[in-house]
Design goal:
Structural class: alpha+beta
Shape: globular
Oligomer: single chain
Number of strands: 14
Strand order of the largest sheet: 1-2-3-4-5-6-7
Radius of gyration: 21 Å
Order of helices and strands: HEEEHEHEEEHHHEEHEEHEHEEHH
Strand content: 15-25%
Largest sheet: 7 strands, mixed
Length: 342
């Protein structure tokens, strides 16, 4: 599905539901990589937005989209094939405008308020087929490249080892990255990441949808809320993720949930902390998908990119605020690579 087609169908549905006209303009190159400029015509004035068009209908990283437009000259509006009622509520909580092909929309601006939800998904709406780099194995490879950009020019075998994937998957993923402008070709060479910040944003968007669900997640309840404070997870070959990791490296957040990534079996950790299985528990255990030598800010926490993605996936305003600190301190380097400890 083409982004232009999504935008045209969404604005048409918006006009049908609200009676408001819109105008679409090409986005200037300096507009934070916006896909288009979108004007909403209200009486005798124009409300301008930067359109962020997403050809998906599931959003675990609304905070990432919201943060992208923080310093933009115009507010960002999410345009998508379909926005569910739950996602609409999250967008409103984040004050993130949106519109979709069904006519669902949320816009809040001086003299203008639109909030429409519950419209059914249009028959023609389909999710775009996944690119090779956006499969679970592909996201593992991209993560390895973002953390160690020198791997881009390494032999396939080294890339596969660092990403913990089968050797045969590497070539197709690198070809996909090359075709979509994320990777410079081997000839004339050397292979290297192009615009890694854009690739980083793509990884953050798709990690909670494609890779995280494959990490054997299990939920538990702990005997007390602050059980994690005196717990050294390194003895269990584990790392803190999410809110606890964020609290440890920023000192800014009071964790309400605990996320733990493990390199091995969780049995010893579960027994030592008397964790009780609970489908709605505040403790989540997942398999670690990176190698132990991946750069991290401390021995007992996950890599910053994982912590950031965990926080942004919650769409919780307090987590999003903390995620911004992590991004600015550890992820916003010149080349987009994770900043090493120290």
């Amino acid at each position: 599905m083409k982004e232009k087609e999504i935008l045209e169908r969404a604005t048409e549905a918006f006009a049908n539901e609200t009676g408001l006209r819109t105008r679409i303009w090409p986005a200037p190159a300096d507009q934070l990589r916006a896909d288009a400029l979108l004007d909403v015509l209200v009486d005798n004035r124009t409300v301008r937005f930067l359109a962020e068009i997403k050809a998906v209908d599931r959003f675990q990283t609304l905070g990432t989209i919201k943060a992208k437009g923080e310093h933009a000259p115009h507010p960002l509006i999410l345009v998508a094939p379909y926005i569910t009622a739950v996602t609409a509520q999250q967008c409103r909580a984040l004050r993130l405008p949106f519109m979709d092909e069904a006519g669902n929309a949320y816009i809040e601006a001086p003299g203008l308020f639109v909030y429409i939800t519950g419209k059914r998904r249009p028959v023609q709406t389909r999710i775009t087929p996944a690119y090779r780099a956006l499969t679970p194995a592909g996201l593992r490879i991209v993560f390895a490249l973002l953390n160690r950009p020198v791997l881009a020019n390494a032999p396939y075998r080294d890339i596969a080892k660092a990403a913990r994937v089968a050797l045969g998957t590497v070539g197709d993923v690198l070809m996909d990255l090359e075709h979509r402008g994320h990777l410079a070709p081997e000839k004339p060479g050397p292979r290297r990441l192009l615009a890694p910040r854009r690739l980083q944003e793509e990884w953050i968007t798709h990690y909670p949808i494609k890779l995280r669900p494959k990490l054997n997640a299990r939920r538990f309840t702990a005997p007390k809320n602050d059980w994690w404070r005196d717990q050294d997870v390194r003895q269990h070959n584990a790392y803190w993720g999410g809110e606890v990791a964020a609290a440890k490296i920023t000192g800014y957040l009071k964790p309400a949930t605990a996320t733990v990534y493990l390199q091995g079996k969780p049995d010893a950790l579960i027994l030592a902390n008397r964790l009780r299985p609970d489908a709605n528990g505040e403790v989540e255990l997942l398999d670690a998908f990176w190698t132990p030598d991946t750069p991290r800010q401390a021995d007992d926490v996950a890599p910053p990119l994982v912590i950031y993605a965990d926080l942004m996936a919650t769409a919780d305003p307090r987590n999003v605020e903390t995620a911004k600190l992590i991004h600015d301190q550890y992820l916003a380097t010149t080349d987009g690579a994770t900043r090493p400890p120290g």
